[in-house]
Amino acid sequence: MQQILKWVGITLLVLVVAIALFLAFFDWNKLRGPISSQVSSKLDRRFEIKGDLDVDLAWTPRITVNDIELANTDWGSKPEMMTLDRLQFSIRLLDLLKGDVVLPEIHLSKLDALLEKSAKGKGNWVFKTDKKDETDRTEIPKIDNLTLEDSKLVYRDPTTDTELNLTASAAGAAKEQGVRLQGRGRFEGERFTLKVQGGSLLELWEKSKPYPVDLKMAAGDTKVAVEGTFADPVQLQEPKLSIDLQGDTLAKLSPFIGVPLAETPPYKFTGHVTRSGEQWLINDLKGNMGSSDIAGHVAYSSPKDRPFLKADIKSKRLDFKDLVGFIGADPTPEEKEKPRIFPDKPYDPEAMRSADGDVSFYSDNIITPNLPVDEFKTRLQMDHGKLTLDPLNFRIDIGQITAVIQLDASKDIIATKADVKIRKVPLRRLLADTQFKEESDGMFFGQIILDTTGNSVADMLGRGNGDVTLLMEQGRISNLLIELAGLDVAESLGFLLTKDKSTRIRCIIGNFKVNQGIMKTAPFVIDTTDTNINIEGHIDLRQETANLRLKASPKDPSILSARVPVDVSGPLKSPKVMPDRTRLAIKGGASVALGVLLTPIAAIIPWIELGLGDDSACYAMINEAKSDDAPAPPKPATRKSPAKRNGK
Question: How far apart are the first and last CA of the chain?
């Protein structure tokens, strides 16, 4: 037995010595081909070790690989995706036997990597064998000492005019030396700078210690600063970050998050970033956009590579001019006055289809240039190109303007439907900041139903079809306000018959039929205590012009011997208002019957459902019109037949 053990020992010793001598004199370069072939097969991309391959044997062997190349895709801008002058690393064999990968040192010299996208948006870093398997943090090698020397990374995206040139550096003991990444270039055509400071590689490997990050990025006037920690930086889990975000317009954030945002005035926000599952959360969001304050929270996720943005925003002081970018107008204060009224900047249907969202907004302290609003509330939902604003509500005193607007951008031309209701909006509030407030009164009702197509507000209005009706009852209009249209106009319409400061308005019923952007009156009547005023004509929303005629008929022929029509014509921004002296109304006699003015009566009847009481002046006016519209007796023959009246 002793002899057997002796010879077994000698045999093993000889075998170990033989293996050691074999490895010591082995030409490791013979493994370059098999290794290159194996990696190439796995990546389905040419991988080649062109330089020497050497191994220094020990319990912690050191491996040196020189001149490494990884080929680019067929459509790439250059043949190589990556070149590396030298890779040198050591590995502890005893730890490897335990299943742990420990690299006491790793050194990379002259790493040159190119990441780029094709014209179709495909990245050259996507390999045919890529899988979306999650990587566990413990699979990252533990590195005690890292050195990056003369290393750079280039990122190109021709579809967005982006090219970034980054340099990376790290040197010294991993537990003491953090990782730095910095670079500059062009992003979306804007000047771009990036600076990232990470914790040590030892902290990256240790699960018990959060990994610190400090990122500063600038793209043009857009600046982002993020500071905090990740519990797992590889999978970006359990972040505890603070964020500082500022820029000249929110629209420039769209390329970063993939969600289309409107043009806005300059902004500055701060918040705290956390994560729940696939959702990134910005809590305690607060800051300013233009002269409005903004607060709330935002959630962002990208399920199946489709961005989704959910937000609940409130404002304690909302300036409405800061939101005009959402309807295609220019929010910049230095915008020159335009000759037209309706915003003509087009929406991008493709961008509207690119992401989904659910955004709520509320404010009860609102600054508006013309329309006084006490409360604003809306909710915007986006689902595969279909956008819905429901509700879109404005409270004015005791009145409400409520709307539901639907935009379908599933095709290249946006289809839009709008249903707007006006309920009990006081005229006095509309004139709140004017000298006419005390002498004016009344309550507005109305409804706007519009079905249209077009990619801008101007196009939508210019192609619209639908119905517009406005109603005001028991009101007063300041005579001074009427006189501003011209003394001749006021006299022509019979508004200066008394010395009162205001003219009593029993009821206003105005109805427009809209066809391809042309709003035709059908009918439009102003009923005062002394005069009925009939408005005929049309408004061209496409050209933004008006061609209206106001005809006044006194209720008592003794009040005034003559009336002349008043014409309103020209651009909506600055229309001309003047009496038509070439035509005189019939002297004497009573006014034309209300039944004729309000024909067809069917256009008015639905407005009884607006909430008017039985004592409403407009209700009474409608009933009076029904009576006036009764069929006429056969004689006298001079009286017009109902058929002619209806065709008027």
Answer: 130
- State the Cα–Cα distance between residues 105 and 90, nearest whole angstrom: 6
The domain boundary residue, chosen from 212, 229, 251 = 212
Write down the residue that tokens 């800061």 correspond to. Answer: 322
Q: What are the tens digits of pLDDT across the range 575-598?
A: 888 887 665 544 433 445 555 555
Q: Is the peptide bond before 565 cis (omega within 30 degrees of 0)?
A: no
User: With the C-alpha atoms ordered 332, 333, 336, 339, is the resulting torsion angle positive or negative?
Assistant: positive
Burial of 165-199, coded b for 16+ CB within 10 Å and e otherwise, reads ebebebeeebeebbbbbebebbbbebebebebebb
Q: Cα dist. 209→42, 204, 437 in Å?
A: 35, 8, 67
**pLDDT at residue 542 in the model:** 94
17-21, 131-135, 180-184, 433-437: range with lowest mean pLDDT: 131-135
**The pairing of beta strand 531-540 with beta strand 518-528:** antiparallel
3-class secondary structure, 85: strand
Structure tokens at 567: 């014409």
Q: Which residue segment(s) compose the domain that 620 sits in?
A: 472-646
Closest CA to 529 of 427, 613, 444, 617: 617
**Nearest C-alpha neighbor of 249 from the set 238, 260, 236:** 260
Number of H helices, E strands in the chain: 13, 33
d(CA 255, CA 386): 21
374 φ/ψ angles, rounded to the nearest 5 degrees:
-95, -25
Secondary structure, 3-state, 540-558: ECCCCEEEEEEEEEECCCC
Domain-embedded: residue 503: yes
Which of 179, 212, 245 delimits the end of a domain?
Answer: 212
CA–CA gap between residue 288 and residue 457 (Å, rounded): 27
Q: Retrieve residue 323's tokens.
A: 């939101």
Q: C-alpha dihedral over 253, 255, 256, 260, to 10 degrees?
A: 60
Q: 367-395 pLDDT, tens per residue?
A: 887 678 889 999 999 999 999 999 999 99
In a domain, 513, yes or no: yes
Statement: residue 48 has pLDDT above 90: yes
Q: Apex CA 339: angle with CA 333 and CA 342, to 5°?
A: 75
Quote the CA–CA distance of 424 and 529 in Å, as a whole number.
22
Q: Which amino acid is at 512?
A: F
Whether 145 is in a domain gets the answer: yes
Contacts for 641-644 with beta carbons within 8 Å, 24 or more apart? none
Q: Give the total residue count for the chain.
A: 648
The mean predicted confidence, pLDDT, of the chain is 79
What are the C-alpha distances in Å from 590 to residues 526, 560, 643? Answer: 16, 11, 22
Supply 387's token pair.
């956008």
- Cα separation, 233 vs 179, whole angstroms: 13
Residue 611 in any domain: the answer is yes
- Evaluate the CA torsion angle 88, 92, 97, 101 in order and state its sign: negative
Number of domains in the chain: 2
In single-letter form, the type of residue at position 265 comes to P
What is the residue-wise DSSP string for 178-204? EEEEEEEEEETTEEEEEEEEEEEHHHH
